[in-house]
Amino acid sequence: MVDRHCAEMRTFDKPVVEVDKTTAYIRNLKAILHHNTTKFSHDVFEKRAKLETKSVDVFITKIKTLVKACSYTKESERIWDKIVSGVNNTTIHERLLAEGDQLMLEITITIQQTYEMTKAQLKILEEKKEIEQEIDSVARNRKYFLFDVLKYNGVQKFQRISLLSCLKYLLHISNKARFPGPKAWF
Asked: Which domain of life is it from (predicted)?
C-alpha cells in the first residue's frame, strides 16, 4: 500500500507556470546565442580574405557559406563586395569598380576565374621559355667541351675542341691510323 504523501512525490508533472517560464528562458537564451553567433559570423565574414594560394572557386564557396550564417538581407551584394575587395590585381579591381551596378555577381565571378586561368597560363609559358633558354644554353655549351687529347710531349693536355674534331679523332683512332696531334686539327 502506497502512502498518499509518496504518491504525490512520484509525479513529475510540472505546473503550467513553470513550463511557460522554462520555455521563455530557453527562447531568450536562443535569441541571445543567435545574436552573438550572427555577430561572430559577421566578423568572420568581414575578416575573410582571398589567399594567393587558394583558387577563386574555393574563395567564393567559402564566402557563400559564411554569408548564409550571417543572415544578411542582400546576400549577393555582400558576396560581390567581398569578391571585389578581395581582388589582388589593381587592373581587375579598377575594372570591377568601374562596371559597378551593371556588373552582376555571375559576371564578376567569371572575370575573376578568367583572370586566374590567364595568370596560370602565363606562368606555364614563362616556365617553358626558361626551359627553352636552358636547353639552348646547354646546346651552345655542348658544342665545345674539354677533351683529354693525349699525352703530348709527356704533358697531359686538355683542350677545348669542337665536337666535329672529336669525331674525326675517334674515326681516325678506329682506323688505327697514326694520330697527327692536336695542331693538325686547327
From this structure: Eukaryota
Separation CA 47–CA 118 (nearest Å): 27
Burial class of residue 109 (count of CB atoms within 10 Å of its CB; 0-12, 13-18, 19+) = middle
Show the cell assigned to 132: 627553352
* 37 SS3 class: helix
C-alpha cell at 136: 639552348
Give the number of domains in the chain: 2
Structural domain includes residue 7: no
* Cβ count within 10 A of residue 50: 20
Element containing residue 159 per DSSP (H, E): strand 155-162
Please state the φ and ψ torsions of residue 28, each to the nearest 5 degrees.
-65, -40
Q: What is the pLDDT of residues 127-167, one digit of tens each?
A: 888 877 777 766 665 554 444 444 445 555 555 555 666 66
Q: Which three cell numbers stand for residue 15?
A: 505546473
pTM above 0.70, yes or no: no
In the chain, the N- to C-terminal Cα span, in Å, equals 129
Name the phi and psi angles at 3, rounded to 5: -70, 150
Decide if 97 contacts 84 (C-beta within 8 A): yes
* Same domain as 152, residue 108: no
C-alpha cell at 8: 504525490
